[in-house]
Amino acid sequence: MARTYFKDFEREDGTEITVEYSITPYDSGVSSGPAESCYPPEGGEVEILKSFTDAGPIKLTDDEENAWCTEIFESHDFSADYDDYDDWRDDY
Fold first, then answer.
1. Average of pLDDT values for 75-79?
2. Please, how many CA atoms are within 13 Å of residue 15, restricted to the half-sphere of its CB?
3. How far is Cα 68 from Cα 77, in angstroms, rounded to an integer?
């Protein structure tokens, strides 16, 4: 089952919107050292699943979705995801 997260944003008119999103694990890749050990960055794709206010669902503009996906990617704490995975793995 995919894990989802929530983040609050504010529209230009002051409306507060909560988005539910998923994000793939990010690997920054390796760009130095022997060529056989190098690989490009991968992962970190953000998908906004739902957007809503206290009044109900909201449709995002393309500009909002693009800007907020970028902000989510730049601010998401990927290390917390890996910590949770390690904790889960240690249970078995």
1. 84
2. 16
3. 15
The tens digit of pLDDT for each residue in 2-43 reads 689 999 999 999 999 999 999 988 888 999 999 998 999 998
Which pair of structure tokens corresponds to residue 2? 């995919």
List C-alpha distances in Å: 2 to 49, 52, 62: 12, 20, 24
Say whether 32 sits in a helix, a strand or coil. Answer: coil
Beta bridge partners of 39: 30
Contact 5, 21 (CB under 8 A): yes
Measured over the CA atoms of residue 52, residue 16, residue 21 and residue 45, the dihedral's sign is: positive
Quick one: which H or E segment has residue 8? strand 5-10
